[in-house]
Amino acid sequence: MSHINVTINGRQYRMACEEGQQGRLLKLAEDLESRVGELRGKFGEIGDARLTVMAALTVCDELLDSSQRIRALEDELETLRNVRVAAADRAKATQAAVANALHSAAERIEKTTQMLNRTIGGGVAIG
Fold it and tell me: Smallest Cα–Cα separation from 112: which of 99, 122, 127, 97?
């Protein structure tokens, strides 16, 4: 476990984090500090706790929007996967139908050739 100091709204806090996560925690604290600063610029000095709560609510709002967007993208991805599977199934069915049609045509040609050979009699065989 590692410890670092972060500054949020002008106050220092000693935070614990997993080894190797110090940079991420510092970045998160900088982001929150930036949001608090933006709100302070918009609303002035309305109290430390209120600014911090407003910044936290802003982050939560963005997180909720992002979660909804992720869910929508996951739904869209699932739909596209289903469409891809259906298209692959249709392609296989089409290939099978074409193969069957070609086989059937080949059989008809063969029967026609045999019938012509019989009709011509002892003449030259066709095919």
Answer: 127
What angle (nearest 5°) sits at the alpha carbon of residue 45, between those of residues 11 and 40?
Answer: 75
Domain that holds residue 68: 2-118
Asked whether 15 and 5 are in contact (CB, 8 A), the reply is yes
Residue 123 lies in a domain: no
pTM listed for this prediction:
0.62
Provide CB contacts within 8 A for 11, sequence distance 6+: 48
Per-residue pLDDT of the chain (127 residues; tens, 9 = 90+): 899 999 988 889 999 999 999 999 999 999 999 999 999 999 888 888 899 899 999 999 999 999 999 999 999 999 999 999 999 999 999 999 999 999 999 999 999 999 998 888 655 555 5
- Helix 22-43 and helix 48-120, axial crossing angle in degrees, nearest 10: 120
- Whether 6 and 29 have beta carbons less than 8 Å apart is answered as yes
Residue 125 lies in a domain: no
